[in-house]
Amino acid sequence: MTAAARPAPPPVARGRLPLIGHGLHMWRRPLEFLDTLTAYDPIVAVHLGPKPTYVLTSPDLVHRVMVSDAADYAKGRSFDKLRDYLGNGLATSEGSFHLRQRRLMQPAFHHTHIARYARTMAETATARAASWRLGQAIDVTREMYDLSLAVLTSTLFSTTLDERLAAEIRRTVPLVLRGMYTRVLDPTNLWQRLPTPGNRRLADAHRRLRNVIDHLIDARRGSPPDGEPDLLTLLLRAEDASTADTMTSQQVYDEVVTLLVAGTETVAGGLAWLFHELGLHPDADRELYEEVRQQSGAPFDLDRLGRLPYTRRTVDEALRVRNPGGITIRRAVTDVELGGHHFERGTEFIFSALVLHRNPRCFTDPTRFDPDRWLPDRPAAPRGAFIPFGAGSHQCIGESFARAEMTATVVAVVDQWRLEPVPGKRVRGVMTSTNHPRDLVMTPRPRTTAARP
Fold this sequence. Notes:
The C terminus is likely disordered. Helix 8 crosses helix 9 and helix 11 packs parallel to helix 16. 49% of the residues lie in helices and 11% in strands. The chain has a single domain, classed as CATH 1.10.630.10. With 453 residues, it is α+β, with helices and mostly antiparallel strands. It contains 16 helices and twelve strands. A five-stranded mixed beta sheet has the order 1-2-8-5-3. A three-stranded antiparallel beta sheet has the order 4-12-9. It has a two-stranded antiparallel sheet with strand order 6-7.
């Protein structure tokens, strides 16, 4: 092919600045910036470093990179930075080691265990919602974060943490998340080397979080729980089928810190956005309550999920329009062809569920919250257009856990309260390694006329 016949390179997203490219947009207003990328099809270049990175806005191309041609891609440079904090857990590992770890961890997320976890989720969410009071203004994002942490620790460690350890996790995980995101976006890789107050806080938070998790692992090795095993016990017992090897303490740590980060922040962000949308859409809230009310008093188990179709559609729609995930980066390990363009080995590609889920070529009126778009008689989303938990061999291992937790929480809260927006409060999205709402203050109103004490 002659130079004149070569296709034009992919367009560059608007707003590129000298030296820092699009990094400032991703730092200051990441959600708004990602929304602008839906105007491009199927690839758009963004600059987050010395070389362009290409955002895939087509579900077909994302499917190729994540599933059908996955062997041609590895995790991008951002994951190298994350390994300083998440180790070599499922979120950061790849290749044969990733497959081995996934096989070792998969039994812990078997449906029989999820069914047992679901009861704990429901009890924890019901107790949390019952602690709210009529007229109390609550920070919904913080409430969902604390609830998700309580759910995860009660299933991971089979008991609630004592307040000292719980407080350490509440303090340190957000600091580590913010620090990780800052480093991922730094195109120079210089900021992390400076003795700034933020870097010192990050190092201290990482050290303290490490101490807490090591303490919990050592305690579980020394004293396994009575009765049904918790998640941590299952990880410690997991054996490689071919070698009978178990995970080292370092491997268990890497997986536990990954579960703490992914299992707390992501679910909390998804739930906070869901209640924000219900506050803005009282008709959807009423329909959801009517479905929950008809099942009121029934024990929460996995069978009940099938009897709550509107609840499931509501969860799906919240995961679509306000997906709590961040961005995923893949690096080509060989020369590749995508979207009619040739890319050399080493080129990096980004995809974001937010970009796909809010793409007008995939969803009608994509920014509108509409649980009924998931009715069986509605047109199905194109393949790969709805991937709230990723795709391929790196799809989130905890998807069924997260869905059960979100459903249990929605049922527990909606059965007791309607969360109403506080007038005058402006809610905006914030991107760290996850997408969550800031300043989401809402007021609980009881579903019955009887006021709570």
